[in-house]
Amino acid sequence: MVLLALVDHRYRFRFVNVGSPGRCHDSFVYQRSDLARHINGPLFQTPVANISGTAVPPLILCDQAFPLRPTSSSPSATEAS
């Protein structure tokens, strides 16, 4: 079973999706979730914070299973030297 969840900076759950079979890839579950529709909608297009005079849009930190979008950031793999 796959759990897809979104928490805010205060560790409060903002979105939960439970019930997809464990054989489903995370990106498959995400793309078919209400969360994907909300993130791609107007809610995440509007800056909601102003930091030192700069409008800052919402940002979601995620892993490599999720598509890279203007509203998301995921760690990048680097080769060890």
Note the main attributes of this structure.
81 residues; elongated; alpha+beta; HARBI1_dom; DDE Tnp4 domain-containing protein; two-stranded antiparallel ribbon; 2 helices; metal-binding
Sum this structure up briefly.
The protein is an alpha+beta fold and 81 residues long. It is 15% helix and 30% strand. It has one domain (2-73).
Q: Tell me the strand percentage band.
A: 25-35%
Share of residues in helices: 10-25%
Low-confidence stretches: none
Number of helices: 2
Can you tell me the number of structural domains?
1
In order across it, which strands form the biggest sheet?
A: 1-2
Describe it for me?
The strands form 3 sheets. A two-stranded antiparallel sheet has the order 1-2. The chain has a two-stranded antiparallel sheet with strand order 3-4. 15% of the residues lie in helices and 30% in strands. With 81 residues, the protein is of the alpha+beta class. It contains 2 helices and 6 strands. It has one domain. The termini are far apart. Its cofactor is a divalent metal cation.
